[in-house]
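Milestone M4 deliverable, item 7.
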Amino acid sequence: MIMPTAFLLYCTPTEKNTDRIQKEQIENKRNESSLDDKRPIEELSFKENSFEDFFKKFSGDSIFQKRRIRYPISCYTFDILDNREEYVISREDWVFENFMRDKEAPQFEYDAYESVVKKIDVGEVIYKRRGIDNGIMVEYYFFLRNEKWILEQIIDRSN
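Output delivered:
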């Protein structure tokens, strides 16, 4: 008889046990929610209200840029006979593309170009670099996936 009474006393929630259980439940919920969303804190705090907001961060933040590309990314080039060649870039091989300098690009002495944003649809944007008196012509295809803009394809028609 003593054993069951001791067992009941151990299992009956006391004020300290109740507090401990509540704290454990709260901590478990925190851990579960952090497991569901593995994005880094700086990305969680970033709100994409528009492609322009996204692109500003994508242009100047190399870590953010690397995270917002679908790998391996398909890149297409065209030869003089307009034959298409595909190559892919893996996450490890991606080199930061500095779009921040595009504002000054029309004034470059060599390889000047202008950039144009063309919205195709609600969730599709093409960012174009077109050369000024040269053969630069590169298109970057962005798509809105799960409320995040992702670079999915590059087409380089430069000659």
